[in-house]
Design goal:
The chain is mainly beta. Among the domains are: 133 residues, no CATH class; 89 residues, Carboxypeptidase-like, regulatory domain (Immunoglobulin-like, Sandwich); 131 residues. The protein contains one helix and 36 strands. A hairpin with a 5-residue loop joins strand 16 and strand 17.
Length: 543
């Protein structure tokens, strides 16, 4: 029994190969000549826990035995030849035979590799550890790898090893188990990613079914290693450890992993800022088309019916929404309303793809989120930016008017990040219009190819906004920035890096801004002055 320390956590380990990690190959007593080449014959000694048909009795050791039909590669001259276990003796040794090409010279240097599937004509394959399934059966048959170098004694039509050859295991075998921060076993592991932080080499394990123990073959290492565990519900846990791993050893660590709260996996959520908020889809005219489910305070998902009133009785109560509304037919989703102050956060794609929203980046149709969370000039929608959690809009390609007036006249103070680089007509039109509490916009709007009215009126009336997002697009198109910051009475910093302004692209975009501010532009580009260009009185910086 042996102990090893992983970043302050004492882990109980055991050696699989306690007696020996050597596989001895000895000269055979007799050989039979091959009719079409040279017959190689050797006897492989008893396996003292080194490989072949591994089994785990649960006592901290691995046991091993030869199996008839197993294959060992003999590599030389840019080719590999396969030796097969033809007989397993009562004492556990194995007889192996192979046919080598006629003309193989005496004293030919060779490499022996078990199993043969791990070899190519150059020796041990470089990709053998790249993909594993975590089962002992697969590891035993393909990844419990041992190699040795030697020479052949060739005498006419027979060949054998030149003396004793010792096969040495190349990898450590680990039986990984994980607990969460509450010391509860993670018993439904579906994938495990192991990254060597020094070499950046990655081992990816995808299990055939949820498992509590994952068997992995690993390179010998003294480096820090990052583990990322995914369970059957898609939860991710992470752990960074360091250990001394030796080839030919069996380790059984149990690692405490920390839950990784991936914000993309949080469905769109309302959390009561004040007690008594009522949340729901309230449609009084027209046809209700949105199909939703809701979860209140972590309970089970339930089907939502039009105009149901979900009451958040206490501060901190929360309701999440999801649905399958990704069909290409239809219009905007029905609007969701909150009657009293609520924080809002989570991935808006949960309304479209209820099962796979964490990875969804496609909007199925035009107008999809049009007015989803908006108020109006007479009623500010009482949704607020959460202190630490964001609303996420991860779509990469936008559709026509998909986000138009989505948060208009809401109480948000922080705009979501907007990563899309492929835009469409009026996709961001008036998105935050009238959000008088908005003080923080995205750092940049990354799209470099614009479309008509794509940002039209986007931040109009955001009277608390002081700094505009960086605008990197080199070529402006018709009305792309039309009224974009109109009425932003606190805005005093704009950076626009366009080199081709076009015409009618920035009409009234800085109307109503302060009389002083800073405007950053590309050197040598001539801008008009005034509300449709660079406001008079502003300082111009060139880059």
């Amino acid at each position: 029994m042996k102990n090893i320390k992983y970043l302050g956590t004492l882990l109980l380990l055991a050696m699989a190969w306690a007696c020996s990690n050597d596989n001895e190959i000895v000269k055979p007593e007799s050989v039979q000549p091959a009719s079409d080449g040279i017959t190689f014959t050797a006897t492989f000694g008893v396996k003292n826990g080194t490989s072949r048909a591994l089994s785990d009795p649960g006592d901290g050791t691995l046991t091993a035995s030869w199996q008839q039909g197993e294959e060992i590669a003999i590599v030389f001259g840019g080719d590999k030849y396969t030796a097969t276990v033809t007989e397993v003796d009562a004492d556990g040794s194995a007889t192996v035979t192979a046919t080598l090409p006629a003309g193989t010279p005496n004293n030919q240097p060779v490499i022996y590799i078990y199993p043969a599937s791990a070899a190519d004509g150059n020796g041990l394959r470089g990709d053998v550890l790249s993909s594993q399934d975590g089962t002992l059966a697969t590891l035993s048959s393909t990844l419990d790898i041992a190699t040795a170098k030697g020479t052949l004694v060739v005498d006419g039509t027979t060949a054998q090893p030149n003396g004793t050859v010792t096969l040495m295991n190349q990898f450590a075998i680990c039986k990984f188990q994980f607990t969460d921060e509450n010391d509860q076993a993670i018993s439904d592991i579906t994938s495990l990613t192991i990254t060597d932080l020094a070499t950046t080499e990655v081992i990816t394990v995808t299990t055939p079914s949820p498992m509590a123990s994952v068997y992995v073959a690993m390179m010998p290492s003294n480096n820090s290693t990052k583990f990322e565990v995914t369970d059957a519900e898609g939860n991710i846990y992470q752990k960074t450890s360091s250990a001394h791993l030796e080839a030919g050893m069996f380790y059984r660590p149990t690692l405490k992993a920390i839950f990784f709260d991936d914000p993309l996996k949080t469905p769109l959520t309302f959390e009561a800022k004040e007690a008594g908020a009522i949340v729901g889809v309230f449609v009084f005219e027209g046809t209700h088309t949105t199909q939703l489910q809701y979860k209140l305070n972590g309970d089970e998902w339930k089907d939502y019916t039009l105009n149901d009133e979900i009451i958040l009785e206490n501060i901190g109560d929360k309701v999440s929404f999801r649905g399958d509304n990704h069909g290409t037919e239809g219009d905007a989703l029905d609007p969701i309303r909150c009657t009293a102050p609520c924080y809002i956060y989570g991935n808006v794609m949960s309304l479209l793809y209820k099962e796979n929203f964490a990875t969804a980046t496609t909007l199925p149709r035009n107008y999809i989120f049009y007015g989803l969370l908006s108020g109006n000039e007479d009623y500010l929608m009482p949704i607020y930016s959460h202190p630490t959690k964001d609303v996420l809009l991860p779509a990469t390609t936008l559709t026509e008017q998909c986000y138009r007036i989505m948060f208009a006249y809401s109480c948000l103070s922080r705009a979501p990040m907007l990563p899309a680089e492929t835009l469409s007509y009026q996709c961001y039109g008036n998105m935050f219009e009238g959000c008088t509490s908005l003080t923080s916009a995205p750092t940049t709007l990354p799209a470099t190819t614009l479309t008509e009215f794509c940002y039209g009126g986007m931040f109009s009336g955001c009277t608390s906004l002081k700094t505009a997002p960086v605008l990197p697009a080199p070529t402006l198109v018709n009305a792309c920035y039309y009224g974009m910051f109109n009425g932003c009475s606190s805005l005093n910093n704009v950076e626009c890096l366009a080199t081709n302004l076009g015409s009618s692209t920035t009409y009234t975009w800085l109307n109503g801004v302060p009389s002083t501010g800073t405007f950053t532009k590309k050197a040598g580009v001539t801008w008009p002055t005034g509300a449709s260009g660079i406001p008079e009185g502003w300082t111009v910086v060139e880059e």
